[in-house]
Amino acid sequence: MSLKKRLLNNGIASVFQKSVRVLEQLILVPFFISAWGAAYYGEWITLTIIPTVIGFSDMGFGTAAANSFVLSYASDKKQEAANISKTGMYIITVMIGIAMLLSIVTIYFLNYFEVFEKSLIHKTDAIIAVSILILARLLNFYSQLFQAYYRSAQKAAMSMNLLSIYAALNLGAGLFVLLLGYGVVQFALSQLLVVLAFNFFYWIKGKQVLGLFKTHKGKRDRLIQKNITKKGLGYLMSPVWQAIYFQGTTFIVRIVLGPEAVAIFNTVRTLSRSLNQLFFMIKAAIFPELQFEIGKQNWLTAQKIYRVAMLSVFLMSSIGFILLSIFGLWFYRIWTNNELEVPKAVWYLFISGMLLNSLWWTTEMVFGAVNKPRKMAMYGIGASLFSVVLTYVFSKQYGLVGAAMGAVSLEIILVFLVIPAGSKLMGMSPKELLLNGYDDFRFLYKQLKNKLNSLKA
């Protein structure tokens, strides 16, 4: 299958995957409220904070193992790839054990201080349900490594489609439990059963698609173990610096400007970043092919994939910027029922930030593709801390406009740090990225024009 066709298939699968995820988030809510009541459902959301946070990250070690596996396999180091798989499975299993132990200790202390006593959900049900959900989220840590089998076999679209089916199964199991009138324990158990069944199938299917393990038996390697652990800590920093940025700036706005300013600040930031989901889909479609070409040392092809990704995202974000400039505030007023008044300067600052975010966020995938997360982690932590400080200083001086300036400062800093560093990893300078990107644009434009002319003829 050609590279163009794989990219197209990945893009379609990414759109489908994102659509199912959105449906999963939207459809269950009314059924929760109908089956359990709003207050009971609110308590359930509060209780699931721990498993939800765990679900956002595989602690970095699954990602590190997966990226190491793909790069070794693509460079034809088959035995090394098999060893990485074996070692990665061991590390993930150990981390799941440690995380489960810490979760049990946390639940014990919450129970000791009678936190569960204050809930509308019966204490025993709450403890059992949360424990089951934590285990379900932890078992998903394996999926990152399993995804690497599909990426290495150049079947990324199949992987995304299977993960979409998994999300649909989760949705179906949840709806089934709620419609039958069961409670939190049964709901959590349904999610765990889906995780167990799907991950086993996903693992076996991935091994069959790849075929590596028919000829190579992996061994645990201490050097590989050390390398994955080191890189895993780098990937772990990504959710950390994002938490510093998002929660830190929100906290600063609250203490300096008050609760209403927080509502305006967060709703504007949320709406202005709504198009980021489109950028995510482009990254999801391009990343597997980019990483595989890098692993094969096909740098010219990899560079072109990266430039096309940057070009696509920039064009989409530019169109998004224009649309949000014209219609954004009108939609915001409808969305918030005219309850919140946004200064125009705040709105334009945030949508400008979206434009900058699209560039560095697309480049960010390069650090994962070459499996060198440490530098990106350092950039993120430094920029997030600096942005929080600026948000405080500017909020004091210029109010909500100053808060927006402080928040957008992160995007400016990361554009100037991440794009040159990412381009260097790809063997290009920012100037070459710009000039060659322009040539790619002209080439794509000519191809599109010729295609339209042939259709007219």
Describe this structure as you would to a colleague.
It is a single chain. With 457 residues, the chain is an all-alpha fold. It is built from 16 helices and no strands. 41% of the residues are buried. The mean pLDDT is 88.
List the helices and strands and how they pair.
Layout: H1 3-36, H2 38-47, H3 49-55, H4 61-74, H5 78-112, H6 123-139, H7 142-152, H8 156-179, H9 184-210, H10 222-257, H11 259-272, H12 276-295, H13 299-335, H14 344-369, H15 374-425, H16 430-456
Helix pairs in contact: 1-2, 1-8, 1-12, 3-6, 4-5, 4-7, 4-10, 4-12, 5-6, 5-10, 6-9, 7-8, 7-9, 8-9, 10-11, 10-15, 11-14, 12-13, 12-14, 13-14, 13-16, 14-15
What's this model, at a glance?
The chain is 86% helix and 0% strand. It has helices at 3-36, 38-47, 49-55, 61-74, 78-112, 123-139, 142-152, 156-179, 184-210, 222-257, 259-272, 276-295, 299-335, 344-369, 374-425, 430-456.
